[in-house]
Amino acid sequence: MKQLIQKIEKWAEDRNIIHGSDPIKQAEKTVEECEELMEAVAENNRPEIIDAIGDIVVTLVLQCRMQGLDFVECVESAYDTIKDRKGKMINGKFVKDA
Fold it and tell me: In order of start, what are the domains of the chain with their CATH numbers?
């Protein structure tokens, strides 16, 4: 995973995305890619779902780089937060206990 992240960061550096953009613009790009994922899921379009998920991860890797964060550490932090979480499914969504 670390090598793939480095490739993504190099790709972005080569295109001046890291220094030529800013975290807000990158967050907007993430939202745009999430909207594409929602459309692909609604259409049950597997190739577009794969593409959108990949694009979302790329935007998040770049957001981490812009913020001086490590992508894997962010994911590990999220997992550490949810690993013992209790809750229940309500209308197809997991709702954590208060």
Answer: 2-96 (1.10.287.1080)
